[in-house]
What does this fold into?
Amino acid sequence: MKTLKTNKQSGFTMVEILVAAALFVLVTAMILITFIGLAESSSMTTANSEMHSGIRNGLDIISKDIRKSSSVLSCYDNHYILLQVEESSGATTNFYYIYDSNLLRIINWQWPSEWPLVTPVIASCVTNITFSLYKKDGTATTVASEAAMIDVTINTSASVRSKTYSDTLRTRVMMRNK
It folds into this structure.
């Protein structure tokens, strides 16, 4: 008996190869787009978190100094405040909080010990800061010597990959030593 040999070649046709290549490119593109989106989202979240963390820390520092202060010596144009703290030893320290609009930051000076050598930046990415003065009964005042509470409002803004994030943090603090 004779057997017939057929000349069949195993493999893929050109159409099958093109379909497989197209599917591979499509799946790879979808995975790449997903990874790029996740990386962008992660960097935006990190930047936003760092901005808020810095502003919260700055607000905590200001609040701590307001609580221990005995008087407000000056509050000018809502971007500058001068607090006086009387130590138990009888010495006084002045704390200046100034909004530097050129560099979008809040700086702090202590006088007489640090002036003008040390100017620590306590918050950056700041677009505005407002100090509002209040009497003990909660009514607003513009007279620094009448202030018993200070309302601090900080507006922030940060840009990440051409997207801008803005927020406002606010606290009202009573001077405990008034």
Summary: The mean pLDDT is 83. The two ends are 117 Å apart (CA to CA). The CA atoms of residues 13 and 19 lie 10 Å apart. The first helix runs from residue 14 to 68.
